[in-house]
């Protein structure tokens, strides 16, 4: 990506309270901004910016706290199950594109000092601005639900199970009690950020410590696997090389397994694998940078009083505070899942004896796919064949087909900790995975609530008011806490993260296209708009990110609209697309008319 050379921080006074839209009016804020500018100025003069950047970093860590959530964990697990280490490249590419777009957002915001929502509505298209705002609010409330359930599962299945404990149990009372405690704890942490001063500094330190704990937990597991010879460094390096053929063909060792099957079986299992593979690729890419993250970044920077001199710090913050932790954690989860589940099958499931096969802990989960395979082979005779005969045919299927069926079973982090217990020790496995998973869920709850506070301020055109902020925080928190009433099935709670991620990727192009337009708008950037080679560099990098987001969204919309199990999906999706398309066209017409009259 092309970079721009920031001017040395000047001695000009920091923005006034009126100019900083998120400044609560505390005079100490301006003093802090002035002090930060002086620190940057001295660091640049001495050629020692690294220490200053590390000290002043913050918004990038907020991004890290939200991107390392249940969706990232679920997506990384399934990537490892389906493709082994061969799909490590996907999240690396996704986060690079995310950093490019977030860098563009920070450039626009810090160059102009304007609130993005106001700038989009007045200078580009109010339909894009309101679509961005509403989509962010919806994503906040949807994403909060799986994070609460993820925290509960971490406590129940891992942390409260250490030393022979029985966990929290599956009672509604236990769920509501734990959820309410989590809600109060998250609300307290979020409100620390509002108070500024030492409270806000503690908020930053708490988040950095939480993310550090997550990184240590999962990186430690990967290092141990490597030291025990469970993974190959060569395979990891090869997995970092992008392989776009995985969009349409089975990845990893399963590709070779499927190729050994009969033509009929090959076609059947390839379709199954590629469909699941494509879905999880979209979900994994979506969790790298979601639409609500594009809203958080500019407002968290404005809240700190950052402006033009902080542009270099913003890029550093995104690269170190967000990208590096994301790549480390998700990569290590893929590696651990690959070592435990990829192309693996238990002895019972591999047996040709039906009674033995039915004793497998995964039999119930693979039975549906295996039955569909048998029905395909039977053809017209399937209707007249008894279930018992079909089960015998399932048991007689080649072990390779059963391997593929096992790969389609969704696993969770708690099953992963169980498979690694012999290597880590049962207590250590539960502690490491429990802390890591809980940290991912709780940090994301905090940030989703924080973003919703910013959203409500903008929605009510009260950018410096604490009342709307607190209401937005509470709304997101209560929505997340409602998981107890809305999602009670233990198997679907964890994987709600994947479905929510698919929803988010449908909305992400709204933000990407909008900020692409802003980066090329002289009305917004004036003399700060990149020119010449820098403009070409920005546009090529952003264009690739925009095309990637649109392609992922189009695939997701197509898959959802033509989902045979959901007949109402097509008219619903098409209606939403049609209404929003008309709104965007109308927004551009309104903007053109407004510009002419002005």
UniProtKB/TrEMBL annotation:
Domain of life per record: Bacteria
Keywords: Membrane, Transmembrane, Transmembrane helix
A Pfam family per the record: Nramp
UniProt keyword Transmembrane helix, yes or no: yes
InterPro entries: NRAMP_fam
Chief location bin: membrane
Biased composition (Low complexity): 1-17
Renumbered residue ranges of the record's region Disordered: 1-33
Membrane-spanning segments: 61-82, 88-110, 130-150, 176-194, 206-226, 280-302, 323-341, 431-456, 468-488, 494-517, 538-558, 570-590
Membrane topology classification: Multi-pass membrane protein
Cellular location(s): Membrane
Presence of keyword Cell cycle: no
Protein name (Swiss-Prot/TrEMBL): Divalent metal cation transporter
Species this protein is from: Aporhodopirellula aestuarii
């Amino acid at each position: 990506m092309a970079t721009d050379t920031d001017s040395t921080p000047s001695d000009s006074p920091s923005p006034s309270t009126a100019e900083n839209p998120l400044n609560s009016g505390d005079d100490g804020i301006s003093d802090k901004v002035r002090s930060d500018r002086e620190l940057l100025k001295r660091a640049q003069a001495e050629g020692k910016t690294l220490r200053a950047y590390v000290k002043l970093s913050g918004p990038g860590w907020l991004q890290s706290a939200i991107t390392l959530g249940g969706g990232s964990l679920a997506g990384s697990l399934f990537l490892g199950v389906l493709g082994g280490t061969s799909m490590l490249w996907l999240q690396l590419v996704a986060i690079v594109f995310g950093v490019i777009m977030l860098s563009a957002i920070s450039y626009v915001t810090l160059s102009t000092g304007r609130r993005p929502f106001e700038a989009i509505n007045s200078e580009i298209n109010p339909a894009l601005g309101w679509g961005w705002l509403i989509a962010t609010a919806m994503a906040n409330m949807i994403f909060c639900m799986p994070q609460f359930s993820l925290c509960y599962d971490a406590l129940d299945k891992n942390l409260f199970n250490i030393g022979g404990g029985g966990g929290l149990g599956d009672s509604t009372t236990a769920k509501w009690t734990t959820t309410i405690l989590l809600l109060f704890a998250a609300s307290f942490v979020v409100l620390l950020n509002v108070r500024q001063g030492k409270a806000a500094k503690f908020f930053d330190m708490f988040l950095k410590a939480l993310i550090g704990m997550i990184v240590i937990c999962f990186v430690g597991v990967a290092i141990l696997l490597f030291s025990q010879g469970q993974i190959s460094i060569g395979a990891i390096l090869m997995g970092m090389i992008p392989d776009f053929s995985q969009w349409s063909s089975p990845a990893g060792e399963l590709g070779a397994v499927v190729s050994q099957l009969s033509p009929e079986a090959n076609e059947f299992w390839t379709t199954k694998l590629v469909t699941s593979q494509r879905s999880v690729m979209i979900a994994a890419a979506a969790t790298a940078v979601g639409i609500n993250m594009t809203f958080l970044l500019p407002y968290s920077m404005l809240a700190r009083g950052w402006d033009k001199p902080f542009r270099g710090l913003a890029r550093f913050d995104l690269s170190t505070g967000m990208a590096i932790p994301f790549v480390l954690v998700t990569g290590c989860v893929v590696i651990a899942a690959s070592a435990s589940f990829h192309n693996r099958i238990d002895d019972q499931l591999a047996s040709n004896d039906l009674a033995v096969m039915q004793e497998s802990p995964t039999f119930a989960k693979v039975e549906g796919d295996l039955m569909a395979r048998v029905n395909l082979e039977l053809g017209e005779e399937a209707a007249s064949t008894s279930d018992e005969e079909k089960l015998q045919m399932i048991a007689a299927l080649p072990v390779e087909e059963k391997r593929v069926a096992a790969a389609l079973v969704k696993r969770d982090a708690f099953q992963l900790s169980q498979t690694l217990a012999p290597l880590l020790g049962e207590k250590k496995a539960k502690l490491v995975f429990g802390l890591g998973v809980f940290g991912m869920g709780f940090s994301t709850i905090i940030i989703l609530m924080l973003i919703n506070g910013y959203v409500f301020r903008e929605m009510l055109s009260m950018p410096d008011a604490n009342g709307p902020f607190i209401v937005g925080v509470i709304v997101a928190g209560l929505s997340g806490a409602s998981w107890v009433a809305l999602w009670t099935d233990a198997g679907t709670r964890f994987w709600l993260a994947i479905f929510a991620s698919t929803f988010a990727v449908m909305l992400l192009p709204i933000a990407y296209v909008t900020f692409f337009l802003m980066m090329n708008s002289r009305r917004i950037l004036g003399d700060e708009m990149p020119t010449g080679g820098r403009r070409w560099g920005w546009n090529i990098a952003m264009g690739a990110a925009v095309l990637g987001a649109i392609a992922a969204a189009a695939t997701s919309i197509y898959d959802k609209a033509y989902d045979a199990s959901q007949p109402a999906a097509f008219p619903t999706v098409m209606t939403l697309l049609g209404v929003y398309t008309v709104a965007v066209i109308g927004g551009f017409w309104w903007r053109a008319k407004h510009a002419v009259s002005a």
